[in-house]
Known about the structure:
Layout: E1 8-18, E2 21-27, E3 41-44, E4 47-55, E5 58-63, H1 65-70, E6 81-86, E7 105-115, E8 118-124, E9 138-141, E10 144-152, E11 155-160, H2 162-167, E12 178-182, H3 185-195, H4 201-204, H5 208-214
Antiparallel strand pairs: 1-2, 1-6, 2-5, 3-4, 3-6, 4-5, 7-8, 7-12, 8-11, 9-10, 9-12, 10-11
Amino acid sequence: MFTGIIEAVGTLRKLERKGDDIRLTVASGKLDLNDVRLGDSIATNGVCLTVVQQLADGYVADVSAETVSLTGFAHYKVGTKVNLEKAVTPTTRLGGHMVSGHVDGIAMVEQRLVRGQAIEFWLAAPAELGRYIAHKGSITIDGVSLTVNEVDGSRFRLTIVPHTAGETTLIDLQVGDMVNIEVDLIARYLERLMNYDGKDSKSGGVTMEMLARAGFVR
């Protein structure tokens, strides 16, 4: 589990094709690796990856064929900058939102505007993910926890403040670029609970009335 608060920007040093999978070597920049062990998870541009080899200044991880097909790893190359975050611990501050590191798909940057000191982006997500994107809800872009400021179908607007831009790869995004997106985890679970029609649905189902009483819907 992650928070979407980026700790460092790394660089892809090596990518090795192993059939449909990829083994990658990441130079981790200023990320503190002193408490990282084999088998630990590091979100790499929003993708939860397992450390399979430790290096003095980075780590090696494997990316499965399924992950490659759903993320930007399909077109990453040596030298690509990536946002890095280590998995949370029981004492970690949850400064962003709950991020699983399981990317749902890829969105495209449609528009980039400068608004004062901030950067504003319009992005287009796959149509099937539009129902999970809510005004003032949370979304993860290349591992960065962000607030959705406007929604138009499966299109949405983000505002990147100077600190976030300077500490992540988002400052370099241009029109036409593709980014990894992970929709809000709670939205996915609510949909599953509401639509589940298995044999035990009568004993454990969630109704719109129940959600309204809890304040999730009006």
